[in-house]
C-alpha cells in the first residue's frame, strides 16, 4: 500500500512510549489506520488532533500490515478546542465517523460532508449556524451505510433541529455503533445538552 492524500484525522491512540496509531478519513481510500513514530512528541502533538486536516503519506509492504504514516498539518482545529460547544461537536463528529465506518471503503460524499461540517463548526458565528449541518451529516452517514430512513434535514430554527437530532439518536446507537457505543454516545449526549441550553 502506498497512499498520499489529504485526510481528516478522526482519532489517535497511544502505542508504546512515543508512537500513535491514528485513524484518518481520506477521499480515495476511506478510513485508514497508520502508525506514526514519535506521534506523542512535541513536534507532532499539535498535528495529531481529531478534526485536523493533514497531508498524509501511508506506506506498507502488504495490505495486511499496519501502514507507517507521515503527517503534515494543512488546517488545525486546535484553536476551537478551548470552546466547549465547538470542541464537543468536533469530538462527536470525528468519533462517530471513526467508529461507524469500515476501513478502506471510500465514501467521497462523507469525506466532503465531514470537511464542510468541521469548517462550519469552526467558522459559523454560533451553533445556530452549524447545527443543521450536523443533522445533515448524521442523516447522510446513516444513508451511506444503508440505514437511511425517512429523516430529512430540518429547515426550521434550533428547537426543530434539536428534535430531529433527538430522533436520530436511536438509529445511530442501534445500527451504526451497535456494540461499540460506550463513550461515543456519551459524547453525543454531552453535545445535545450543550445545544439544548441555547434553544
UniProtKB/TrEMBL annotation:
InterPro entries: DNA_rep/recomb_RecO_N, RecO. GO terms for biological process: DNA recombination; DNA repair. Residues 1-75 form the DNA replication/recombination mediator RecO N-terminal domain. This is DNA recombination protein RecO. It comes from Croceibacterium salegens. The lineage of its organism: Bacteria, Pseudomonadati, Pseudomonadota, Alphaproteobacteria, Sphingomonadales.
Amino acid at each position: 500500500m502506498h497512499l498520499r492524500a489529504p485526510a481528516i484525522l478522526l482519532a489517535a491512540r497511544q502505542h508504546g512510549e512515543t508512537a500513535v496509531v491514528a485513524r484518518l478519513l481520506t477521499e480515495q481510500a476511506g478510513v485508514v489506520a497508520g502508525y506514526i513514530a514519535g506521534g506523542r512528541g512535541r513536534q507532532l502533538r499539535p498535528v495529531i488532533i481529531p478534526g485536523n486536516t493533514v497531508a498524509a503519506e501511508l506506506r506498507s509492504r502488504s495490505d495486511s500490515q499496519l501502514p507507517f504514516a507521515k503527517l503534515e498539518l494543512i488546517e488545525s482545529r486546535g484553536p476551537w478546542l478551548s470552546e466547549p460547544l465547538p470542541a464537543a461537536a468536533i469530538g462527536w463528529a470525528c468519533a462517530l465517523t471513526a467508529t461507524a465506518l469500515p476501513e478502506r471503503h471510500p465514501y467521497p460524499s462523507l469525506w466532503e460532508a465531514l470537511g464542510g461540517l468541521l469548517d462550519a463548526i469552526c467558522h459559523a458565528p454560533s451553533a445556530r449556524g452549524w447545527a443543521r449541518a450536523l443533522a445533515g451529516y448524521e442523516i447522510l452517514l446513516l444513508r451511506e451505510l444503508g440505514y437511511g430512513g425517512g429523516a430529512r434535514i430540518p429547515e426550521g430554527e434550533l428547537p426543530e433541529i434539536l428534535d430531529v437530532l433527538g430522533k436520530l439518536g436511536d438509529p445511530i446507537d442501534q445500527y451504526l455503533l451497535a456494540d461499540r457505543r460506550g463513550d461515543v454516545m456519551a459524547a453525543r449526549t454531552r453535545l445535545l445538552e450543550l445545544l439544548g441550553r441555547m434553544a
